[in-house]
Design goal:
Number of domains: 5
CATH topology of the largest domain: Nucleotidyltransferase, domain 5
CATH class of the largest domain: Alpha Beta
Radius of gyration: 45 Å
Shape: elongated
CATH architecture of the largest domain: 2-Layer Sandwich
Strand order of the largest sheet: 3-2-1-4-7
Order of helices and strands: HHHHHHEEEHEEEHEHHHEEEEEEEHHHHH
CATH superfamily of the largest domain: Ribonuclease H-like superfamily/Ribonuclease H
Strand content: 15-25%
């Protein structure tokens, strides 16, 4: 970097610093120095540490004090009068202390059908159905034959975890004797006191399929190194650069890639193709088990006969509203069970849908207002003839805000006061062009002297026993 040349061309220090990407102080130091800059900072050697070299050598020769860290030695030296910095001491110790020799690791060998190693991989966010969605890869590999299985999902929930196990066993053609996983919560609930407590659903899968679950030590992924390496292989050789439009079709492409490419390549360690070794290992695998992957929860349907699941409401028959039932989650959908019988099945809702309701679970549709008005109008016309038809027509024309209430008022007053009085009131209302709710009732009460109570239920007066006395006892008091 020729700072002197740029300065002679008339550029300012600020401009030179911006052009060369260095600080202004670096430009000033370069202009003052006769030698070109070397991009390395020249530090003075630790002269303050020299009086303590013998003390540090004595500590390093001691079998106990040689294990002290640089921070511990700094504390001890400061108590003895050291005024230097920590970096000088650490650099000096790094040059004196020998680096520990890297220990060779023993390779882990397995027998055919003995173990499968399983792991999750985060593939990042990709556009799926027009929405940026995180995609995960479930990766499983047979430890002996190195046969690979990959399935892509949009979550790592318990149901997906169990279903991917079942699909991997089907792909391999059998169940291995051991399944090695890491310490994710869908598999290992706790490792307190060195004892692994498995998730109940995962333990049920292990018992149902017949394999022995195993979990490696925390923070030691080398235990399942075969699957750790294959995660990068699946990402680089298949996922990156491939368009993902539909998850189901993408998984079909993954299976085709496994059969044609991944499991037909010559493996670097075994020097054979995994598909050829799989034919040998398949004979050592345990037979497949028809295991039903299902999770059950107790729920209560709301007043609308709907049950909420993952933010989506699913319908059940109306007779089960406000009643408890069992919701069964399966990879392909939901089932609702009452008294041991399935009352409704639903596939999982698509993205963006918040209500899934079967047509037979819908409440009856209310009758349209116009149809109800026509029915009531026909009844009024049937009871009052042309007079009733004219009144219904005027109601529809003059009072569209409350036509049903006006027609019901006619039928109710007819039952209470009789047809002649109501007909006279309707004729009077039509004559004076008055169509108003409540007017017919007020005029019926005004015109009718005694209402007709025949529509009321027969009620008998209560029988009350009254003491019978002779009235002669009051004669003396009157006198």
């Amino acid at each position: 970097m020729d700072f002197q040349m740029l300065r002679r061309q008339g550029l300012s220090i600020r401009k030179i610093a911006a052009l060369r990407g260095v600080s202004r102080n670096a430009v000033r130091r370069a202009l003052r120095s006769p030698m070109p800059p070397t991009d390395k900072r020249r530090r003075a050697q630790g002269t303050k540490l020299e009086p303590f070299h013998s003390q540090i050598a004595a500590w390093l020769n001691d079998p106990v004090k040689s294990q002290w860290t640089g921070a511990r030695m700094l504390d001890e030296l400061q108590e003895r009068g050291y005024e230097g910095g920590r970096t000088v001491l650490n650099d000096y110790l790094r040059a004196l202390r020998p680096k520990p020799a890297a220990m060779a690791e023993a390779r882990f060998h397995v027998k055919p059908g003995q173990q499968t190693q399983i792991d999750w991989a985060d593939m990042g966010a990709v556009p799926l159905d027009g929405v940026m969605t995180k995609v995960y890869a479930f990766v499983a590999i047979l430890a002996w034959s190195r046969t690979l299985f990959v399935r892509f999902t949009t979550d790592m929930r318990l149901l997906t975890w169990l279903d991917c196990h079942r699909r991997a066993f089907e792909f391999f053609g059998g169940v291995p004797h051991e399944v090695l996983i890491d310490n994710l919560k869908t598999g290992v609930e706790s490792r307190a006191d060195g004892t692994i407590r498995w998730h109940p659903a995962y333990a049920a899968l292990a018992v149902g399929c017949g394999f022995v679950p195993m979990a490696h030590f925390p923070m030691r992924p080398k235990t399942k190194g075969r699957v750790e390496r294959i995660v990068r292989f699946a990402r680089e050789r298949f996922f990156v650069g491939r368009e993902l439009t539909n998850l189901a079709s993408f998984n079909l492409e993954a299976v085709e890639w496994l059969d044609k490419r991944a499991n037909r390549r010559v493996h670097r360690m075994t020097a054979t193709r995994p598909c050829d070794r799989l034919a040998v290992e398949r004979a050592a695998l345990m037979p497949l088990v028809d295991y039903d992957v299902v999770l059950e929860e107790t729920r209560v349907a709301d007043a609308y006969a709907l049950v909420s699941c993952d933010g989506v409401r699913y319908s059940v028959p109306p007779i089960h509203a406000r009643k408890p039932l069992i919701m069964q989650r399966r990879p392909d959908g939901l089932s609702f069970v009452v008294d041991g019988s399935v009352v409704r099945r639903h596939p999982y809702a698509k993205r963006g849908i918040r209500l899934v309701q079967a047509p037979e679970d819908l409440p009856p549709k209310p009758q349209p207002r116009h149809e109800r008005f026509v029915q009531l109008g026909d009844r009024v016309a049937e009871n009052f003839g042309d007079l009733g038809r004219r009144y219904a027509t005027e109601i529809e024309r003059r009072a569209p805000h409350a036509p049903l209430a006006l027609l019901r008022e006619v039928l109710e007053r007819e039952t209470e006061f009789g047809q002649p009085i109501v007909a006279a009131v309707i004729e009077s209302l039509l004559q004076f062009n008055v169509i108003r709710l409540g007017m017919l009732s007020r005029m019926c009460h005004r015109f009718a002297v005694v209402p007709n109570c025949s529509h009321l239920p027969n009620q008998r007066m209560p029988e009350i026993e009254v003491e019978k006395r002779q009235l002669s006892v009051y004669d003396d008091a009157a006198a």
